[in-house]
Write a structure and sequence with these properties.
102 residues, 73% helix, mainly alpha, globular
C-alpha cells in the first residue's frame, strides 16, 4: 500500500518527529494501520476529504501512534467505540448509495 508523503508528514508532525531515519518503519506501520481500519470498518479513501475518510484517517494515525509506541494491543480497547461508530457509518453510507441507485 502506497503511503503518501502527506500522510507520513501528518504522522511525523503529530509525533514531533523531525528526522527521516524511521520513515520506512513508520510507512510500514501506516500501511498496517490502514489495512486494520479497512478490515474493521470498511473501505475508505485515506486521501479523501469526506467526513468518513477524515475519521478513518484519524483512526489510522492513532493506531500508528500506538504501534510506534509499542502499545498496539491497547488500541482496540481504547478506540472500540470510534471503530464501531465508523464501521456503522460506512455501512449506512453504502446502503444510502445503493438505495439511491435503485
Amino acid at each position: 500500500m502506497d503511503i503518501t508523503p502527506e500522510l507520513l508528514k501528518a504522522f511525523k508532525g503529530r509525533m514531533h518527529i523531525s528526522h527521516n531515519g524511521e520513515d520506512d518503519d513508520i510507512e510500514a506501520s501506516l500501511s498496517f494501520s490502514i489495512a486494520y481500519v479497512k478490515s474493521k470498518c470498511g473501505e475508505f479513501d485515506i486521501t479523501g476529504e469526506t467526513d468518513l475518510d477524515i475519521r478513518a484517517k484519524e483512526l489510522v494515525l492513532e493506531r500508528t501512534r500506538y504501534s510506534y509506541n509499542d502499545a498496539v494491543e491497547y488500541f482496540e480497547d481504547n478506540f472500540q467505540s470510534d471503530v464501531l461508530g465508523l464501521s456503522l457509518d460506512i455501512v449506512f453510507a453504502k446502503e444510502g448509495e445503493i438505495d439511491e441507485e435503485v
